[in-house]
Amino acid sequence: MKNKEFYDFLIKVQSIAKMGLVYSKDPYAIDNYNEINDLTKKMLEKFQDVKFDRNNYFTKEVYPTPNISVRTVVYNKKGEILLVREKVDGGYSIPGGWCDLYESSSETAKKEVMQEAGIKVKNLRLVGFFHQVPFRDNVTVPAFVVVYTADFVSQKKEHSYETTDVNFFSLKKLPKLSYKVTKRELDLMIKASKSKEVLFD
Questions:
Q1: 20 plus 72 within the same structural domain
Q2: HSE-up of 164 (CA within 13 Å, CB side)?
Q3: Is 56 inside a domain boundary?
Q4: DSSP letters along 154-186, please?
Q5: What is the pLDDT of residues 51-80, one digit of tens each?
Q6: Are residues 43 and 72 both part of a single domain?
Q7: Strand partners, 70
Q8: Is the pTM of this model over 0.85?
Q9: Is 172 exposed, middle or buried (0-12, 13-18, 19+ CB in 10 A)?
Q10: 59 in a structural domain
Q11: Residues 93, 160: Cα–Cα separation, whole Å
Q12: Three-state SS for 19?
């Protein structure tokens, strides 16, 4: 394995460990994530010959920047929109999630649709780029959302543990929404998906 590939591998493993520490509730899993985090930190320090108590991308001492997430709008032949029911609150949202390190936003978009809906998509088209702050109350970390549309290809597998239902809904009869996407945001994403131009804030 080349140096760059090994470095990217360590960064990816450490980012997975850090996400696990944020979201996991299982004590055994937390211990494992801590161990993985410590091991990769030591390996990265040795690899780079630097100490990670310096400024780096995993600390907030660096210049603060907003997070980036993606959402992908998918319609079926009836013009119904694909929504997934979030396990966390029982509401529905457009498939999407945070962008991972070293992964393009389009790669994340396709991956999230597969993970959350079990659906393979193609022909991604960028349709929007929006600042989420105007649509949210009590924002702790400002975020931008990259919005795509994509064509449905096939249902490949079951959806992930994060979602409890996958379905297409009429735009005139939408279900209760998750806190992950407000009605104003959904309306804007739908508008963007039908526009011939990229909409942005």
A1: no
A2: 9
A3: no
A4: EE-S---TTEEEEEEE-TTS--PBPTTS-HHHH
A5: 444 445 555 555 567 889 999 999 999 999
A6: no
A7: 97, 146
A8: no
A9: exposed
A10: no
A11: 14
A12: helix
